[in-house]
Specification:
72% helix, 72 residues
């Protein structure tokens, strides 16, 4: 990104009055500062997520309603 583009973005942000848009930009900023949360997970946590994705893909799912009927 060129210095000119950055400067234009800064000027645009300074003039913004749209609170929702400013909050969205702020969320993007925070997200980029925090980095990729997935990288901070342990191997065990990553494996658990992968298992859950595979279960969902294979149709091995349980609705919230069914869960509570069984365990509620």
């Amino acid at each position: 990104m060129t210095a000119s583009t950055k400067s234009q973005l800064v000027e645009w942000i300074i003039q913004l009055d749209d609170q929702e848009l400013l909050e969205a930009i702020s969320a993007i900023k925070k997200s980029s500062e925090n980095g990729d949360w997935y990288k901070s997970l342990t191997d065990k946590q990553k494996a658990s997520i992968t298992r859950g994705q595979e279960d969902h893909k294979e149709g091995r799912i349980l609705s919230s309603e069914d869960f509570w009927k069984k365990h509620g």
